[in-house]
Amino acid sequence: MTRRWISLLALLLLAISACANGGDGTKAAPDGTTTGPTDLTTALLAIERGPRYKQSDWAYLVLDQKTGEVLASQDPVRMFDPGSTMKTFAVSAALEHYGNDYVFRTPVYRVGSQSGNILNGNLVLVGSGDLSFGLRKQPDGSLYYENLPELDHSYATIGLPGAVEPPGDPLSALNELAAAVKAAGITRVNGDVVIDDRLFTPHNYPDGLVSPIWVNENLIDIEVTPGSTAGQATTINWLPKTVSYTVETRATTVDPKETTALDVTEPTPGHLVVTGKIAAGKTPTLVVKEIADPAGFARTALIEALQRAGVAVTATPTGPNPASLLPAKDSYPPADKLGEHVSASLAAYVKLIMKVSYNRGADLMTCLAAVKTGSTDCEQGLVAEVDTATARGVSKDQVFPFDGAGSDDKSRVTPTALATFYKQAIQEPYANALSDSLPILGKDGTLANVLSDSPAAGKVRMKTGNRVVGTAADQIIVLGNSLAGYIEAKSGRQLTFMVGVSNAPIATPAEFEQVTSDQAKMAAAIQQAF
Q1: Residue 503 has pLDDT above 90, yes or no
Q2: Which H or E run contains 101?
Q3: Number of Cβ atoms within 10 Å of the Cβ of 308
């Protein structure tokens, strides 16, 4: 099993301050001690001492949100592999630097001279870092997100059941911009179409490439439909359709009792092949393939959108993005702007990222934070994340981000760091945006069907995080699993917390479900204890 496969499966199965004295005055119990109400401590220890955790480390911290009083703690400065709880710092850094109401504006410019309805020159689309770029946007200005047991399409890389395509036309923003070009009186471009992706340098993260330009979130979505009986042919449909990619299926329909296992390869550039097996008579399964060249793909898609709008382009639609034709960065005269696509608010993007645990989306927030600090190097966004954390009273030696998503297993964080950060964040302009973005126990996002019948359901807002890996010898270990966020206690008292576990061997991927359930039960016990 690959490391990424196990990590993705862990998310699927979820469906089924500072050291002794925080910078804000928070007093944490000394390392190695356990404090809190006796009944709560007993309940939490009963979980920690379960047979699967013989080799594991546990820690937690519960704070009164208003006063910073330590209500319960155990090893609160112990380091953990945080998984996706690290997204907290990525989205907060972006919110701090841009503001809740920031919108992404993706313009198209003419570069050259327009004579009548002919542009002698080039059209340039300037990437703004708009993740969804017209996809998911709802009439009320929000962005659609999935709730478990449905999975976001970004998790369909190996055909996990439950993944769905986001609603909307993935080419809608490009169609809108093409219509704006036509409305400007241009029906022919004697030149080329170029994508300006210089906002930041595209960066490869553990979960894939992050770019300033996104079309269908830079994924090819392929829906595979089985035959009604074993041995029958499979059929496919895919989005978005452009001349950049062709897709074929070699997957086979197997007995309904067999397990669906699909894969997508690219044996030659631009040609995708679906292989594997899919159970007969089942609903279609979504698999995806990451677009290798986002700028080149966007260029082709925009040329085709222009053609649909009645604008001819003399340049060949396929091929790499001709970046050498770009003018000096940020040199576009306002009078040459022909149109622009305006996104939903940044707060809506943060909600999407946190509710579904969107890895490349969180990495994008890191890159955008770098831009606001004057850099095109996404790695500098990690500096912004640490600065955002330390400015909220988190000790610099308790938060170590190596990516925005928490998918790099070198990352580390402590319960004191996350509990303190969430407590201090309530004083920030982005407080509501951050709180509203967190999955709600038993209600939505990655917690939609977790303890939905618990009295704590609806009262706990928390980010989930997990890192689960496998070895060549078919061993599986939970490197880290954590929950962090806000609790509205039974009494109405407002709390912040983190609970984490590390180094938990499990026998099968399915056993991870119980690890997550155990931690959710701990959060519920905390909610009921105060």
Answers
A1: yes
A2: none
A3: 14
* 513 confidence band (pLDDT: 50, 70, 90): confident
CA atoms within 13 A on the CB side of 215: 27
Alpha helices in 336-485 (DSSP H): 346-356, 359-372, 380-390, 415-425, 431-437
pTM: 0.93
Helix (H) or strand (E) segment spanning residue 155: none
Retrieve residue 283's tokens.
Answer: 């609903």
pLDDT value at 16 more than 50: no
E strand or H helix at 329: none
Which pLDDT tens digit goes with each residue over 241-293? 999 999 999 999 999 999 999 999 999 999 999 999 999 987 899 999 999 99
What is the four-CA torsion angle of 431, 437, 438, 443, rounded to 10 degrees? 130
Q: CB neighbours (10 Å) of residue 172?
A: 15
Q: Is 327 exposed, middle or buried (0-12, 13-18, 19+ CB in 10 A)?
A: middle
Phi, psi of 282 (to 5 degrees): -85, 165
Three-state DSSP class for residue 522: helix
3-state secondary structure of 415: helix
510 pLDDT band, cuts 50/70/90, is confident
Helix H or strand E encompassing 39: helix 38-48
User: What are the DSSP E strand ranges found in 41-165?
Assistant: 57-64, 70-74, 103-115, 118-126
3-state secondary structure of 327: coil
